[in-house]
Amino acid sequence: MKTTIKIAWRNCWRNSLRSSIVIASIALGIWSSIFLMGFSTGLVEQRIEKMVNLEIGDIQIHSTTYDVQSDILSTVQDLETTENLLSYNPNVASYSSRFKTDAFALSPHGQQGVKLLGVNPADEMKVLNLAEHLEEGTFLDSKNTYPILVGKKLAKELHLKLNSKIQLNFTDTNANQITKNFKVCGIFYVGNDAFDGFTVFAPIKTIERLTGEHLIHEIIVKTKNTDNLASIATELQSNNPNNLIENWQKRYPEIAYGVDMMDTTMYILMSIIIAALLFGIVNTLVMSILERKKELGILMAIGISTWKLRMMIVFESLVYGLVGGPLGVFLGYVTIQYFGEKGLDLSGFGEGMEAFGYDPIIYVQIDPKYYLIYTSYILLATFIGGFYPSRMATKLNPIEAIRSI
Predict the structure, then answer these.
(1) pLDDT recorded at residue 343
(2) Taking Cα atoms as reference points, which of 178, 216, 176 lies closest to residue 73?
(3) What is the rounded distance in angstroms from the CA atom of residue 399 to the CA atom of residue 64?
(4) Which of 3, 42, 128, 328 is surrounded by the most beta carbons within 10 Å?
(5) d(Cα 291, Cα 227) in Å, to the nearest integer?
């Protein structure tokens, strides 16, 4: 066996240029696919982290009719009981109760339909990190009687600045029209046009003065352990059946589905790359066998066993995987580490990415298990890939092979 392996190694390097090209193609293919997987993972993870920490929180609580009839009447039921339940739950870090309704915003320069959120600023900052994304001004910390916080995109469209007046129109529970002028106390920017352009915040006490009622339509919950969101939400739901309590994965299944599909996408990508590389390796070995027909015929004529001849060809295939596979994985690891720390700057496409809530700087990342999986896959694939050329070699007629040119 030792002699067979030694011959296989030497055969691979008889044509060093061709072998180097095959190994380089394997390394390049693996490196590029690892980087692509890291980029895709980083893109999705950053979007989810940004959305959860800035927009939706870990768990949301609504009335059971909220999704069917999301108007000002769809308030959280048994509010005091619900808030007490959250206050004494050991898994809940903090929560923020919100007033939420559709409104119409007007300025001297235009008008826009918006989602009006009435919040307690102190509670909101404990749950979401929106206060860290202020472009200017404060997070509703204002001496104005009617302060309002707007997104950068909305401010741009309505030509709003700090202390600019903006009129909000919405209806109360009796269908009475409420119209009030607010003053901009801050402008936030999270890089998501759907949020920055259609969401405004006002102190919930201000909203209560206008409506004359304490209305809570949504409670955003931040948990101490994000790994058990489903079980925490289930526990809360069992203790509060009159409301709908969902973790973000259940509330936004399309996003959760994208996360669940990530692993599948990884394996599909690896399979496609390995299949493409395998064709190249098999083609190289077939060419090598055709070039060495006379030599193989002599080996068969002097009595080399079919098994040893097959193993020699299989080991030649395996050499490409042993050299090119780890090299490609190593290059991929170095690239992931570098761009995971420095980030990949895509500012040139920034506006297009931010329109969908993605950051222009992507910090690539990948689960370390894929390095081992990829190495195992390529070694297994190159080992299997040698069987067809080896079978082809053993089918040669020794006499005809020796006589060949």
Answers:
(1) 82
(2) 216
(3) 84
(4) 328
(5) 58
